[in-house]
Amino acid sequence: MTDLTAALSAADAQFDESLERLFGLLRIPSISTDPAFAADCRRAGQWLVDELIGLGFDASLRDTPGHPMVVAHHDGATPDAPHFLFYGHYDVQPVDPLELWTSPPFEPEIKEIAPGRKAITGRGAADDKGQLMTFVEACRAWKAASGSLPCRITILFEGEEESGSPSLKPFLKANAEELTAECALVCDTGMWDTETPAISVGLRGLVGEEVTIHAADRDLHSGLFGGAAANPLQILSKILADLHDETGRVTLEGFYDGVEHTPAQVLESWNNLGKTAESFLGEVGLSVPAGEKGRSVLELTWARPTAEINGMWGGYTGEGFKTVIAAQAAAKVSFRLVGKQDPDQIRAAFRAHVEARLPEDCSASFSPHGGSPAIQLPFDSPMVTKARNALTDEWPKPAVMIGMGGSIPIVGDFQNILGLQSVLCGFGLTDDRIHSPNEKYDLTSFSKGIRSWVRILQALSKP
Amino acid sequence: MTDLTAALSAADAQFDESLERLFGLLRIPSISTDPAFAADCRRAGQWLVDELIGLGFDASLRDTPGHPMVVAHHDGATPDAPHFLFYGHYDVQPVDPLELWTSPPFEPEIKEIAPGRKAITGRGAADDKGQLMTFVEACRAWKAASGSLPCRITILFEGEEESGSPSLKPFLKANAEELTAECALVCDTGMWDTETPAISVGLRGLVGEEVTIHAADRDLHSGLFGGAAANPLQILSKILADLHDETGRVTLEGFYDGVEHTPAQVLESWNNLGKTAESFLGEVGLSVPAGEKGRSVLELTWARPTAEINGMWGGYTGEGFKTVIAAQAAAKVSFRLVGKQDPDQIRAAFRAHVEARLPEDCSASFSPHGGSPAIQLPFDSPMVTKARNALTDEWPKPAVMIGMGGSIPIVGDFQNILGLQSVLCGFGLTDDRIHSPNEKYDLTSFSKGIRSWVRILQALSKP
């Protein structure tokens, strides 16, 4: 029996316990954006520290001005083994609207979601607790099979990924020497489909912005003032409606500066994946591509920038009716960035767009919520090739290189602060409902995810 | 001492107790739109029944499918005295946002709001508890001075005015014989300014509508789906932004059908009132007239129709940021009507406007919130002239005939169901903050309001 075979067998043998451990982590409501859950975030971090110490890591909880980091080191089997930095995050998204969950978000269960297809349900199952635990459990399998790990590993688990990572950059800067390695491994991305693993090589950036329109100094009766007084909901609707033109393009001044034309051969390779608008959108009950006209859904979500309204509120929103003209109205807006689009320039262009549409007697206030440029990773570095081959060995179909609609700012920070390239490999699926009610992680994503990391660790340990 | 002088003296002598009684009513949180306050609504109605029985009325609480009506009769001093129906409402608006109140909404106080100017504060102080109590206390003054009332009086107090009056029409129809009189007196309107009383002769109608846009079958991650999936907040923003053109006109098909040109002499009389955009809007921190361009603020609020967004919500609206594309978004929209605009036609035009702007894979649902046409009352009926002269006797400046931005559907119902004209006479002021935090009613509105009704009752009792 080779080391690899033994480690894979160990992963299979311990799988029921792996699942129990993941459930333990999923039961902790570590919602980072809501201050009410700060103690739970800390508890989730400490839970991971304890697990890692049990695996022979030198692990500790590191305080930050926000939620703590988990940092852990393992020397590996030989002193000259290659050294990797693994990243995941233990915090999760809020759970509202709670009434749409079919079982409580922090009481994980195994459910049959289709004939022969089971999934782990609960907030964080896929984003990112289930994913980071694939790596932890792969380390455990290697430890069980060989007594050590085939590589030197440093682990960094963050607790603020879902709330803009305010402490991350300062922490990387302050601990650059301790965190450096040959390459970073990040497990927060998805597969192409249930049979096809993927390595993500393009990540859209993100600019988040909250805007509040201020009109009268109090809420007004629409009978007394309607027709004469400025209505901030009307002004905000116009501002937001004007973000797109009739072809779906974003209208902000200079918005497309730095957006590169996607090469024809890349578009062709994506077209060959056979993903139609109907199949992509059909999973969520839609069928017509929104956004820029004349582009495939893969290009729209992997290679094109967007402007989205993520939340909006103002006036009376309770039961019944209230004929009020609100004093203010607000929206949370975000922009997905590609190529060399500059987050600061786009934030400024949005603010100018708002200001240009304000009546003289109204005002706007803004608060920024994170900004990170897009990232393009190599298609063909040695690390990527090794990981790709290891994935192909595990899954029914060969691994593919894909773009990614979401943003993982950590990849840019690793590049800029630690000088590290990243390999992005994860086992999420598009129907995981991350950030939504009834989040799930396929049982196969978890079991074969663990086995994938067992294989990747061995592949990367070779010169 | 004449009867009138005696009754006015009695009103003055009892004023401190009048105030105590009003405070008692204001302490009952009779919010009709929120089912949680149903028992309080009933309690407010019963409080009024008890007061009226104490004044010699034959008064009772009448159940409806919603909140109960208060109905009371008093025969007056002589069997052939003219007979009037007085209307007010004991329910109040919700109080949110509660944090903007400087004192609790249901703990009324007397505050000095400007040098020498005092006001009664609390939800309902002006709309409509303070107003209806001016009439109740005027009856009490007549009773104290002369032992009876100079007219026959029927009183109808409603408990659903702020929630669309669902029970009112059926109740009027079922009790038409009992409620009929020579003319209705309604106290739910305002003065021109602190020195100038007013009788309102034009009332805008109202159509309320709630619309919900449905897109994906779940909330989506904007990274995975942004740029490809329909965003209901974006669709709704566009729908609402499109309600007005660049000149401020409402764009709904056929919206201006039945809107009459305001006669030049009426516009001129309004211009002579000297109300500028600056003085009208300045009271609420604004300065630029919104809505249709090139019209005075009085014309805009008294004689022109509007479309207003009264509330809007969707997506993530909590602390922090969530990069979600919502499954649905909703708004409460209302239209103020004038002339012969047809509420049903306007509701249908709005729904068509929404449907025409929906992507194929999205849908809209609607729920109606009341609809009533505009009403034009006579400028010069004998009743109006008597009331006008009585007001002029009480206040520093002569009474004026004004339009009104708000809608009081009861006036149309009295006309259509009971065959009664109404005289609209109230003592509210534009800075009363009705429907807003820190609602107030000037102490003078209350004291001279009582004295005004003492005078009007006598004027109306004469042939």
Name the pair of protein chains with the most residues at their interface, and give those residue counts. Answer: A-B, 103 and 103 residues
Biggest pleated-sheet summary of chain A? 9 strands, mixed
- The domain count of chain A comes to 2
CATH fold-level label of the largest domain in chain A = Aminopeptidase
| Proportion of residues in helical segments of chain A | 25-40%
What's the architecture of the largest domain in chain A in CATH terms? 3-Layer(aba) Sandwich
* Mean of all residue-level pLDDT scores of chain A: 94
What is the tally of helical segments of chain A? 15
At the first level of CATH, what is the class of the largest domain in chain A? Alpha Beta
The first-to-last residue Cα distance of chain A is 22 Å
Rg of chain A, rounded, reads 23 Å
Per CATH, the superfamily of the largest domain in chain A is Zn peptidases
Strand content of chain A: 15-25%
Shape of chain A: globular
Oligomer: homodimer
Number of strands of chain A: 18
Structural class of chain A: alpha+beta
Low-confidence stretches of chain A: none
Entry keywords:
Aminopeptidase; four-stranded antiparallel sheet; homodimer; alpha+beta; 18 strands; 15 helices; nine-stranded mixed sheet; Alpha-Beta Plaits; globular; 463 residues
Explain the overall architecture.
The structure is a homodimer of 463-residue chains. Chain A is α+β, with helices and mostly antiparallel strands and 463 residues long. Chain A is 34% helix and 22% strand. Chain A is built from 15 helices and 18 strands. In chain A, the strands form 4 sheets. In chain A, strands 1, 2, 3, 6, 7, 8, 15, 16 and 17 form a 9-stranded mixed beta sheet that branches. In chain A, helix 4 (129-146) crosses helix 15 (443-461) and helix 13 packs across helix 15 (443-461). Chain A starts with a helix and ends with a helix. The relative contact order of chain A is 0.19. The model of chain A has no long low-confidence stretch (mean pLDDT 94). Chains A and B meet through strand 9, strand 10, helix 7, helix 8 and helix 10 of A and strand 9, strand 10, helix 7, helix 8 and helix 10 of B.
